[in-house]
Amino acid sequence: MDFWYEFASTYSYPAAMRVEALAAARGVAVTWRPFLLGPIFVAQGWRDSPFNIYPAKGRYMWRDMERICASMGLPLVRPDPFPQHSLLTARIALVLGDDERPAFSRKVYRAEFGEGRPIAEPATLAPILDGLGLDADDVLVRAQNPDNKERLKLQSARAIEIGLPGAPCLVTVDGEVFWGNDRLEDGLDWALRR
């Protein structure tokens, strides 16, 4: 099944930290699919995160994230600005191999939501890549390649085509969509039953 996630998405943070262990416990293979929520928001007439547009929703989300992260032993620092600009990070994740993408993504989430670091900055991303044994300069160049930029556009268009309502989402091979960190178990169990 596919794990669709957006680096600027708060709920994608705890989901990214637990989806692989949950999937492995069930024997379900997961492919990580980075995408951009911006086009989905624009299609709904939003120019910002709904958590900023609707203050009550935003207050609830941050308190909910505090509870979730505390229960998982994850640090939580509200990034400034929120949401973070995630275009470069998504391009990097997409250019990485399937085996490299999960570790990179988890480290980015830890830097962003665990330490409050800016994920649009190569100064944040290069040490993460180097720490994974990757050549940061090479990866940053490949990420900005026009073909990779087009891949991300197509990936984000695919998210719209599937009908993803937000991030994170699990999408099963039979097309069932499970939206949210709190739906990971449901999605994986559905896939296991199929």
UniProtKB/TrEMBL annotation:
UniProt KW keywords: Isomerase
Coiled-coil blocks: none
EC number: 5.99.1.4
Active site: S9 (nucleophile)
MF-aspect GO terms: 2-hydroxychromene-2-carboxylate isomerase activity; glutathione peroxidase activity; glutathione transferase activity
Domain DSBA-like thioredoxin span(s) in chain numbering: 2-185
GO annotation, biological process: glutathione metabolic process; naphthalene catabolic process
Entry keyword annotation includes Transmembrane: no
Domain of life: Bacteria
Catalyzed reaction equations: 2-hydroxychromene-2-carboxylate = (3E)-4-(2-hydroxyphenyl)-2-oxobut-3-enoate
The keyword Isomerase is assigned to this record: yes
Family: Belongs to the GST superfamily. NadH family.
Name recorded for this polypeptide: 2-hydroxychromene-2-carboxylate isomerase
